[in-house]
Structure formats: C-alpha cells, structure tokens
Amino acid sequence: QSALTQPPSASGSPGQSVTISCTGTSSDVGGYNYVSWYQQEPGKAPKLMLYEVSKRPSGVPGRFSGSKSGNTASLTVSGLQAEDEADYYCSSYAGSNNWVFGGGTKLTVL
Amino acid sequence: QVQLVESGGGVVQPGRSLRLSCAASGFAFSSYGMHWVRQAPGKGLEWVAVIWFGGTNKNYADSVKGRFTISKDNSKNTLYLQMNSLRAEDTAVYYCARERLVAARPLDYWGQGTLVTVSS
C-alpha cells in the first residue's frame, strides 16, 4: 500500500491552467478507472472534486477536469482563480478493498 | 443535509486504547459504506479502514491491521473506530467519510475530524 506520487507543489497565475499529476502502479491507478481527486483548504475537511477519473459531483466548477494515461492520472484546473488555492490529493482504489492516497500537492495561485 | 460529526479524540498514552465515534444524519446510513481516513499533523491523507453498508465486510490499511476495528451501528446511525495498542505514529486528525453510491466508491461527504494525540 504505497502512497501515490504527486508533485509537492504547483502554481499558476489567475486565468492560467495548471495540471497536477498522480502516479501509481498497475495495481491501483493503472488497474482501475477509480481515481478520485480531493481539495483541502487549510483547517478544513477534504472535498470531493472528481471521481472515476473525470466525473464531477454537482457543484464542482467545470474548470476542474481529469484524465488518465497508464499509471498516471492528472487533474487540470483551467482558468485559475484565487479560491482554487488549496492542497489537492488524488486517491485510487487499489484492489482487494484497499484505497490509497497521494502525498498531496499544494496549489498556489500567484 | 448530510452531516458527519466525529467525537472521541484526545490525548492518550502509547499502548492505550481509544474509541472514536462518527454520528451520521441526513441520509440512509444503513445503505452506505463508510471509511476512516487520517491525517498526521502537516502531512497528507492516509486511508485507514472501510466498512460495507451492512457492517459485515471490513478492511484495513496494513499500518493499523490487527490494532484498529471499524464497526457501524445502523440502529444508531453511528460509525466507530476502536483503536488499540496506540503508537506515536497514530497521532493524527481522524475523519469519517461516506462512500458515494457509484462503482468507484469515492468519499463524497466528510466529517470535520477529531484529533488523536498519542503521547506519554
């Protein structure tokens, strides 16, 4: 149950796009289309932003999109806004009723 | 509206036990699987345990297997995490979270968390 690999930080200016990667193995990210992304603001609980790689729960802006290729999933935030500044975590089903999270990426809006 | 409220955290000595509770409201608790996820101070999220909607099937992260027990009382709309043989590395904010009813079972609602500090 090794953690998924995310870059520690990412940044972009308002209006730009930024992409955060999440690399796992064929036993988790690569084996299932069950990748989720969570946003966590300081001192708050995580919030589900994407599930099943690219599906958005109601209320999540369309600026958030997801994709997957092989063992790497990606979260893209288009048209960055100041309110998008937060920590982002990917998660994947890892088989046998196990889940695994990434180490998290701190997104800074410059 | 869906609400999850954790309680039971606190300071505990290494080797002792603690039981966390998560009171659920606003949804049919007996129809949903539930998870515990923890976050050590300044660190990332770590999946801890899952329990099926009926409470029979369960699974745990290797780091807590054999020490922690997840359970749910559908008559009381409450999720529990019994933590035994606590270690310093178990110090974290513990969140309960509900599964969304889709194949991937992502966590669509989270509680506010309860802090567990293991220290002598």
List the helices and strands and how they pair.
The complex is a heterodimer of chains A (110) and B (120).
Chain A: E1 9-12, E2 18-23, E3 35-40, E4 47-50, E5 64-69, E6 72-77, E7 86-93, E8 99-101, E9 105-109
Parallel strand pairs in A: 1-9
Antiparallel strand pairs in A: 2-6, 3-4, 3-7, 5-6, 7-8, 7-9
Chain B: E1 3-7, E2 10-12, E3 18-25, E4 34-39, E5 45-51, E6 58-60, E7 68-73, E8 78-83, E9 92-99, E10 107-110, E11 114-118
Parallel strand pairs in B: 2-11
Antiparallel strand pairs in B: 1-3, 3-8, 4-5, 4-9, 5-6, 7-8, 9-10, 9-11
How large is the radius of gyration of chain B?
13 Å
Structural class of chain B: mainly beta
Shape descriptor of chain B = globular
Residue ranges of chain B: pLDDT <50 for 5 or more in a row? none
Largest interface, with counts of residues having CB < 8 Å to the other chain, equals: A-B, 28 and 26 residues
Low-confidence spans of chain A: pLDDT under 50, at least 5 residues? Answer: none
What is the strand tally of chain B?
11
Order of helix and strand elements from N to C terminus of chain A: EEEEEEEEE
Secondary structural class of chain A: mainly beta
- Please report which band the strand proportion of chain A falls in: under 5%, 5-15%, 15-25%, 25-35%, 35-45% or over 45%: 35-45%
Q: What is the radius of gyration of chain A?
A: 13 Å
General shape of chain A: globular
- Supply the number of helical segments of chain B: 0
Please work out how many helical segments of chain A DSSP would assign. 0
Average pLDDT, all residues of chain A? 96
User: Biggest sheet of chain A: strands, sense, closure?
Assistant: 6 strands, mixed
Helix content of chain B: under 10%
